User: Fold this.
Amino acid sequence: MNQYACDQAMSSSRITAHFQGIWVPMVTPFHDGDGDIDFDAAQQLACELATSGIDGLVVCGTTGEAAMLSAAEKTMLLDSVLEAVGPRFPVVMGIGGSDTRGVVASVQRYNDHPLAGLLISAPAYVRPSQDGIVRHFQAIAAATDQSIVLYNVPARTGVNIEPQTAALLARDSHFVAIKEAGGKLQQLGELLLETRLDVLCGDDALLLASLTMGGHGAMSAAAQVRPDLYAQLFDLVKSGRHGAASALFKTMLPVIRLLFSEPNPGPVKAALALQGKARDELRLPMTAMSSAGQARLAAALEPLMDLPRWTASDKEEPRAGCLLQLVSTANIMPAVRQDDHRHHG
Assistant:
């Protein structure tokens, strides 16, 4: 175990087949000049995140600039993070690609890794039919025993994973959750009502709304900046303290908006650089946040950084009789799923 091994994370028993709470897709730190991965910085960042109150990490997601990493780099980065946080803290590996055979080969490289699951997006660029999406994911599931989190991000892939498609895939116990980043609360609500999947918000600006609807958590790039506040927000909503949650989110929202005002992960890395946690280095074609954007971000971060640190010991017990509501564009109805939180095997 290396110098960044996290004793607190190691003692955790949170690894589970369920995907609840706040998960953070890590940036990939790079060295100045040569642009090689800074594995020491990655381990330190992973350790800090794992002890901040969040529920899991994602390695090689969009925020991790996975598209610019070689296959060997991805494996070394994952191994480095797993070494840092220990086998009991949940880690998900991000995998993407347009060619089903290529994605299957990528998945098989991680069959022997102690992962909470794989985060897999729909095939990008080729825009397959819904049947093609189903068959793509079925081929992947046949090649692994790992749990799979579907990743719906049509702005990047060019295709939407329809709720009916997600529900069909969810009949296979490999598929345990979905990161929904389509920007539509109505679709998120349909996923909650029509599938057994744990539904994670992938649009950070919609985080409070999604949790209030009954969403199970988030995979949040913005949470990397003050992860404890996102864990606190989740706890406030789940314990029925909606007024406090709204007030906290109102404070968080200006920074969230700035973190996505330019292509991700440029602003997130800029924020981490301001905190002294990572260099402001990206691989082309990704570029650093503009100077004007960094100035606005620095100003917005000040009140956020002044907020008291939240720890898991500050958790509130859920209030008796508290019922989260499912909000749609048409009406308000209780969010009820008889199979919610079932064990996925």
Observations:
- The mean pLDDT is 88.
